[in-house]
Structure formats: structure tokens, C-alpha cells
Structure prediction request, 625 residues.
Amino acid sequence: MSGLRPPRLTPWGEILDPNAVLAEYPRPQLVRNSYLNLNGSWHYAITGPGTQRSGGMDDGVGPGAADGEILVPFSPETPLSGVGRQLQPGQTLHYWRTIELPGGFHRDRVLLHFGAVDQRCTVSVNGQDVGGHRGGFLPFTLDITEALQHGAQGPAGPHLLQVDVQDDSDTSYHSRGKQKLKRGGIWYTAQSGIWQTVWLESVPAAHIDKLTLLPDLPGAAIEVTVHTSGGRHPAADSAVERALVTIADDAGQLASLEVEPNVATRIPLGRVRPWTPEDPFLYDVAAVLGDDRVTSYFGMRSFGTGPDAAGTTRLLLNGEPYFHAGLLDQGYWSDGYLTPPSDAAMIHDIETAKRLGFTMLRKHIKVEPLRWYYHCDRLGILVWQDMVNGGTSYRAPVITAPVLLPLRLDDTRHAKFGRADASGRADFMDELHDTVELLRNVPSLAVWVPFNEAWGQFDALAATAELRRLDPSRTIDHASGWHDQGGGDLKSLHVYFTPFKLRKRWRADPRAVVLTEYGGYSLRMPGHDFSAREFGYRRCRTAAELAAAFTRLHERQIVPAIADGLSAIVYTQLSDVEDELNGLLSYDRRVAKMPDAVVQAVTAQLSYEPRPALNPQTESTRGTP
Prediction:
């Protein structure tokens, strides 16, 4: 960790209120009126190999045995956590706090939700084991109702909540993203533990688990499935009763229909307003099952690929060619690392991309908190979603040689890709499935990206087939960058060190040709940098030099390629991340490296034809708590 600068706080981290950390309702896609946020100050202790502790541990970890306080949901490695310690493989990170339920909160069942815990954990309430989870990037829910009965003063509490976490980071096959214990270059500080919101909600015994909302734009209808869980409503004649679904737009109610739970029901809409980045219109949904009521939202849009007027395969939005002008967005912050310091910080990044004229963000090797996707939906920006990579150590020639050489390896040779472990491959496919289910309803999500640059890639054709089965409505970039297996919908290219020009064999590919990483020009901003190192694909010394190089790159290489058949671009990248100084913004989000007008003059040329003026929908009560 030598050579690191002092912690660089973002504007939001600087004013963070420890008593109101990421306090907004964390799941806008399924909103209920029972909500108790558990973010804030918790006790923590680290035990295991290499740790030194004062005092005995004979009675186990609990109050009085703390190493200190940690600000949840920031990982202990981050500045905002107040800890600044690296959890090592073989160690255990213990969290605990007491909770009390407000009067009237407790109904039939109490659910404990975790946005994400890296990498595996067990959870107890009042000393009772209530479950656990494995996998560092996806949410999970535990029913803690029975354990609450063991509280010292009954269900109201106080109750002791404890979470124990282990994280192997990059020393095992588990999905880890870009974390590495020996950080540097394109690999970032490993982090661990709770890194998304922890919260409680109370539900009736018979309640709604989730909604599936599948828009049919050509048919002017929405297919709705109300998924239910357990129990029997006291007034019901049978264990399963019908749910009432209501749909509205800004002019009023469109439909109100009773539906059979767990059965897909098609609901025609009397009027349809397509969702686009220029007009990100969202419909409101409410579903009632007995005493349970949830709200959500959806957008009417369709994705795919197809020929333009000249017969060139293009990406389609709502049946028409639409150029995806995107930025690589890694979702890292100088003070919270994977965890955004606030809701406003997430909004800032999305609004900045839109203001600069980009229509897409490629969410790179990370699953964000669900509020991030909601803001993309309501503000209007397309999302390409990467799966989180795993596997054991990667072989440098496999993941780096294709930068300059036309190397294409067969990814069924698992060992070469760090995927010899069958259980690791199975875990990845389970996480792929869970990621699709988590984000299925997100209107802005246009493209799935299962593998990137051979990082733990395996059987990409089989993964594509499974993605297609799970979600036939979206486009698939099956192997972003290289080791193309010939599948998916896109011919996906990463080009950094050579001039970009569409080659004849790419144009002959039946898939749409997309440039999914390029650029990456770096510029150090003294006072806003993370370390003494500098990683980028072309080093610039001044802002004027960067602006000239950025403009020249696009006008000479990218814009001509669009006419030749290029259908999407992903410039590297939205912000600096640790050693990577190739962002349009500094890591702390305090400095834009080029004037808006310079970037806007470039992005105005990144389309098939002039785009209509942007009309981002402002946040309202639509789809929100």
C-alpha cells in the first residue's frame, strides 16, 4: 500500500451524516411501507490468523470484545468506514449491534435484508442462527421472526444482531470483480464485509415476494406475474387468493385487474409511450394481496439487433436503429470504494454522463445497489450489465496478449482461463441466474455481458444459451474484448494501442460490431489522485492536450467508423479509479478534466442522425417510497 496519497473524500463523503447513511428506501423496484434502516455505527472485531487482541475471547465475540466502531455499509478497508483495516484470508470480520422495533412495526413476519456482503457470512439474532449467504455482489433476505421471540423484552427488543464474514478475495475461485490483495494498475484494493444497505421490513404471512414485469411494446401490453410466499390470509377461503394489480401513467389509471398469483397475466394498455433515453417515461404499478401492498414501475421498450436501411446490422431500440454512445462505469469511489457515499453521488455520475451527451453506461464487473438502476431508469440512460468475474489466478498471456495479437483461445479449455474448479463454474452460473432475476425488471438494462477479456471466462456459448433462455428480451455481448467464441449478438472489440478502423471481416460478421473499450487517455490531477502510480493507455500532461487528443481520436477514428457499420462505443472511462487516471472525472468527483463543451461537441457526432433534445424525467413519487 506504499505510495498512497491521504484519503480523498468526495463532496458527499465530506458531508456524510453518520446517523443517516444511505437512508433512502433501497429497493425502488418493490416498495413497501414497512422499512427500518440498519445502516450506521456497528461494533466490529477481526479475529483469526495474524490478529492480535487484548482480553479473552472465551465467551465469544459480542459487546465488550470490540476492536472499535465501523460505519455500515462501508467496508473496513474504506476511509468512510472509520476503520482502515484489510481483512485477510483466514480471518473473520465480526459485526454486531442491537436493534429495537418501532411500535406497530411487527406484523406476521420480519425480514432482514442485506444489499451485499463480501464474500460469505453467517447471521444470528439473539444468539439464534438465522442463516447466511455466499457471494459478494448480490442481495439476500433472511426471515428472523422466530429469533425475535428470544429477545430479552419480547419482539420489540432490544435484539442482538451479529454478522460474521470471511473473504478469500483473489486467493480462491469466488467471484470478486476487480479486487486484489496486491492492488495495482487495473486491479483495485480488496474489500470485504457489508458494503450495501442493511434493512428490515415487516410483512403479512401471505405476502408478495416479487413482481415480474415484461413489457410487450409492439403488442401495447405488459405481462405481470405476482410472486407470492407462504401463509394464508385470515379472510381468504383458500391458501392462495387473487392479487389486484393497478397500472397508471401520468394521465391516470390504465388498468385494474385481479390476477392469479404466480401466473403470468397479460394486461393490455390503452395508450403506450415508449421509454427512450430522450424520454424516459415510466408507468406506475401497484399490487395488493390481502393485507400486503407493494408498488413498482416499468418502461415500455424493446431491445435487439437488426438491419438498417443499408442492410448493416445495428443495435435496435424500440425496433429502430439506435447508436449506444457509452462510458465504462466501474462504480468505485475514492472514499467508499464499491459503496457510493450517498444517493446524490450516484445521481451525479448518471446526470454527468447524460449532460456530456452519452446515452449508455457499461456497468463494469459490478452489481450496483438497486437505487442506481432506478436512477438510470428515471433519468434515461441505457445500461450494459457485466457479470462479476471469478476464477483462480489468471494467466497473463491469456488475458493480456490479445491486446496486440489476434489470439483466440477455445474457452472450453477451462484451466487456461483459471476455471478448472467445477464448483467455481457452478457458482458463477448460479450468480448469473440470480443477477438476471434481480435486474430483470430494469427498463434501462439493454445488454448482458457475461465475460470480459477472458477473466474467468468459460463455456461462453453455453452461458449465452442460458442467458437467452432466462431473458430473451435483451442483447448479449458474450465475450467482451477477445477470445470471441462466435456467439451472442455482438462482435465485441477492445482497441487501445492501434488506430481503430473497421476491418472487412468484422463488417462481414452477421452480428452488430461494437467497440466496447477504447481510449483510456490519462491525466493526473494533483490533489485528487489516489497513488503515485499512473495507469492509462496514453498519457497526457495538460488538460488542453487531453482535450485535443480526445477530439482527434473521435473525429478521425470513431465517427467515420459509425458510417462503416460501428453500432456502439464504450469510452474508458467515467472516472479515475485508484491508479487508473484515465477518467473524464477525478476519482473524488471534484474535477472534470475537460470542459463540458469539448466532450459535448464530440458526443453530438456519435449517432446515426441528430438526436432529439434530452428530456430527463425528474424524480417524483413514481416508483419511489
Q: What stands out?
A: The longest strand covers residues 207-216. Residues 543-564 form the longest helix (22 residues).
